[in-house]
Amino acid sequence: MIQTSQISTGMQYSVDIVLCIDTTGSMGPILEHVKENALSFHDQLGSAMASKGRSISQLRLKVIAFRDFADRAEDAVHQTDFLPFPDRAPDFESFVGGLRSAGGGDAPESGLEALALAIGSEWERGLDRRRHVIVLFTDAPAHPLGSPSQVQAAGYPQSVPRSMDALFQQWGFAHSQDALMENSAKRLLLFAPESEPWVDISEDWNNCLYFPSNAGEGLEEWEMDEIINSIANSL
Questions:
Q1: 120 Cα distance to chain centroid
Q2: How far apart are the first and last CA of the chain?
Q3: What is the pLDDT of residues 164-200, one digit of tens each?
Q4: Are 32 and 221 in contact (CB under 8 A)?
Q5: Contact 147, 163 (CB under 8 A)
Q6: Residues 214, 220, 222, CA angle at the centre, nearest 5°?
């Protein structure tokens, strides 16, 4: 279990992580694998930090489960708030444990909407050193932002930008005034197929790590170690 204590140097390390998880029908074969690793995530990160002689003063996890607004708008997105660990671990485990694969309609899903909601999260702004991480898991391409079938759906989040350029502005770059995330703190890890828009994001967005997956086969090859190490090694 992660220790919520101050490390020996006196610096306090804060880590916020948003897990965006595709829960459409095609994810069924590997959703349980993703869930299993998500539930062990905090312990694995704590062990990795301890091996480096560091500890995390504050860890918060948030989950955004997404499907497709064009298919079933009523359950296209389900999300938690940021859940502090270890106090809210039972809430995290209950939410993740209850995820089920269903629906999806056509091939593209609402992955960009989930990414936009993650970017707009209420990230920690205090403590000495911060890491703000978005991890997105999908085996499908995404509907273009501004697509009428998406935007006109009931309950569509009004905070979601209507174009990729606007979403990139919210992701931001060095000294960007429109950015919703702190440039030095942010990281994006994509476990997604080699399709649009994921390839363009991996090439054009800063602080992004891309792990291609095979569409239709899920994410069997993804490794939790990649996420753990990218966080622990950057603090």
A1: 12
A2: 18
A3: 999 999 999 767 788 999 998 999 999 899 999 999 9
A4: no
A5: no
A6: 90
Q: What is the pLDDT of residues 4-30, one digit of tens each?
A: 444 345 677 899 999 999 999 888 877
Residue 40 structure tokens = 């062990």
- Give, in words, the CATH class of 13-222: alpha beta
Spell out the residues 6+ positions from residue 124 whose beta carbon is closer than 8 angstroms to its own: 14, 16, 58, 60, 130, 132
Mean of the pLDDT values across residues 228-234? 77
| 215 pLDDT above the threshold of 50 | no
Domain boundaries defined on the chain: 13-222
What single string gives the DSSP state of each residue in 90-103? HHHHHHHHT-----
Q: How far apart are CA 108 and CA 111, in angstroms?
A: 8
Pairing of strands 77-79, 13-22: unpaired
- State the pLDDT at residue 142: 96
Give 27-70 as a DSSP string: GHHHHHHHHHHHHTHHHHHHHHHHHTT---SEEEEEEEEE--TT
